[in-house]
């Protein structure tokens, strides 16, 4: 293939990248990485460097790269019918089939799925529907949404507000007033080192109860959370957390939105994180794993109890005033159908269970005793290595040290393995494609061990 030597320059002059230091990039101080091709768990850049992608893009290429079956489904759909809308009862074979496949896999109390394009817009839809729901029920004051610090739910106006990371708020006038944040369930980072896990859960519950009491339960519509905190640090909840939180929500008639953008379709070794933790959701947000990112598609799955109120709403008020041009886009839907079929045919969730636990165990064995590794944790094919300056005294690195950024850079540059420096705190994240082999897991662990040693000693 002919090489375009101007790409670096074109990139700096024209391309506004998301989540990027714009000034440094425009000045050419950070490299433009042009990714050219990919297969299985590996990506390759245009200079021929091959990397083992232990974060599956942005934890989304779940079935792995280069799947012919999905590429064919997309091409066939584009040739047959590239687009038709889904307004006023229209559909395509792909979108209707995918809706059925999603509901067959979702928890039993779920009723219908609305398709969007991104995790952010799906959560935006959820918030709108929650407000609509309470208006139909004659509770116009019950509108606030509780999220958790360190939660990640998108980067729009409402969804960026739900996200509980300062980096997504600073200078954007977020969070908006209707959004409240409660304690992140992060046992390792608890303030009181002597606190038991059970006492810690009780303190998370007490914080939530206090917030509800302060605001008034009649002003709070919903609580949103990821089964396992993702972008906020890959933190599985402490034992008993979700059961206790659900008890509080039921008591105060607060809806539960389970954001399964990362955990949906197998990442925890079960179809949904809701299955894993016994969550009974009113809304489930899906995106990434729905198509394994072969095409943009997301969804808001609504429960029977929500659906009944939405039906009542349209009987009383006429058609629902909500939708995007690209809702249920046929190309995304065709990718979704082929992707979910592949997930079953290749038994990839079984691989998550076996290779995921092997990866986590191997990371723990290789790094758990390192003086600058505070904790190795995870669930399914999701793992994190938390770096710390002083393990005994629980002193974290100064952000200016850029500890995790240096480790992930060393992994990539020296060992050709991609792990993600998570955006808050010194946490190295792993979320490989589900097709990861044990040999590839060994490569990831060896690269992490060497990079931690070379950067932190
Ligand atoms: N929800 C969760 C749990 C996510 O991890 C993400 C993205 O990483 C989103 C929502 C937002 O999805 P998107 O980036 O597709 O808007």
Structure description:
With 457 residues, the chain is α/β, with parallel strands linked by helices. It folds into two domains: 33-63 and 347-456, Aspartate Aminotransferase, domain 1; 69-345, Aspartate Aminotransferase, domain 2 (3-Layer(aba) Sandwich). Helix content is 41%, strand content 15%. It contains 16 helices and 15 strands. The chain has helices at 7-14, 22-26, 56-59, 68-81, 93-105, 119-136, 157-162, 197-215, 241-251, 273-277, 288-291, 304-317, 330-345, 348-367, 403-415, 438-456; strands spanning 35-39, 42-45, 50-53, 110-116, 144-148, 179-182, 220-225, 255-259, 283-286, 298-303, 373-378, 383-387, 417-418, 420-421, 427-430. It has a seven-stranded mixed sheet with strand order 4-10-9-8-7-5-6, with helices on both faces. The protein has a four-stranded mixed sheet with strand order 1-2-3-13. The protein has a four-stranded antiparallel sheet with strand order 11-12-15-14, covered by helices on one side. β2 and β3 (50-53) form a beta hairpin. α6 packs across α12 (304-317). The longest helix is centred in the C-terminal third of the chain and has 20 residues, at 348-367. It starts with 6 loop residues before the first helix and ends with a helix. Pyridoxal-5'-phosphate is lined by residues 58, 118-120, 123, 152-154, 226, 230-231, 259, 261-262, 287.
């Amino acid at each position: 293939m002919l090489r375009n030597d101007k790409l670096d320059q074109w990139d700096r002059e024209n391309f506004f990248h998301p989540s990027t230091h714009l000034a440094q990039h425009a000045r050419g101080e950070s490299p433009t990485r042009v990714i050219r091709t990919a297969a299985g768990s590996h990506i390759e850049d245009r200079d021929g460097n091959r990397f083992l992608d232990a974060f599956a893009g942005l934890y989304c290429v779940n079935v792995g790269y280069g799947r012919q079956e999905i590429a064919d489904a997309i091409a066939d759909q584009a040739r047959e019918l590239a687009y038709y809308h889904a307004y006023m009862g229209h559909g395509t074979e792909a979108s209707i089939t995918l809706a059925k496949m999603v509901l067959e896999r979702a928890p039993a109390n779920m009723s219908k799925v609305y398709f969007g394009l991104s995790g952010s817009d799906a959560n935006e839809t959820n918030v709108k529907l929650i407000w609509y729901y309470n208006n139909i029920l004659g509770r116009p004051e019950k509108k606030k949404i509780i999220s958790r610090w360190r939660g990640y739910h998108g980067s729009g106006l409402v969804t960026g507000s739900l996200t509980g990371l300062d980096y997504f708020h600073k200078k954007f006038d977020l969070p908006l007033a209707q959004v409240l944040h409660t304690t992140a369930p992060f046992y390792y980072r608890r303030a009181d080192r002597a606190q038991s896990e059970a006492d810690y859960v009780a303190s998370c519950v007490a914080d939530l109860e206090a917030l509800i009491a302060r605001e008034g339960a009649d002003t709070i519509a919903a609580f949103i959370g990821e089964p396992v905190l993702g972008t906020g640090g890959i933190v599985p909840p402490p034992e008993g957390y979700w059961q206790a939180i659900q008890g509080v929500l039921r008591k105060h008639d607060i809806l539960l939105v389970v954001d399964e953008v990362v955990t949906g379709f197998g990442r925890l070794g079960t179809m949904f994180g809701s299955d894993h933790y016994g969550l009974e959701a009113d809304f489930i947000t899906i995106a990434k794993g729905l198509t394994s990112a072969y095409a943009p598609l997301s969804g808001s799955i609504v429960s029977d109890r929500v659906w009944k109120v939405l039906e009542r709403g349209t009987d009383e008020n006429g058609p629902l005033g909500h939708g995007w041009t690209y809702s249920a886009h046929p190309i995304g839907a065709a990718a979704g159908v082929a992707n979910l079929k592949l997930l079953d045919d290749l038994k990839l969730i079984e691989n998550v269970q076996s290779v995921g636990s092997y990866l986590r165990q191997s990371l723990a064995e290789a790094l758990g005793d390192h003086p600058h590794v505070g904790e190795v944790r995870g669930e399914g094919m999701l793992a994190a290595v938390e770096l710390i300056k002083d393990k005994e005294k629980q002193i974290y690195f100064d952000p200016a040290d850029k500890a995790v950024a240096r480790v992930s850079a060393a992994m990539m540059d020296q060992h050709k393995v991609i792990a993600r420096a998570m955006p808050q705190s010194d946490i190295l994240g792993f979320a490989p494609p589900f097709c990861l082999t044990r040999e590839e897991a060994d490569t990831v662990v060896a690269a992490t061990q060497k990079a931690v040693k070379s950067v932190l000693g």
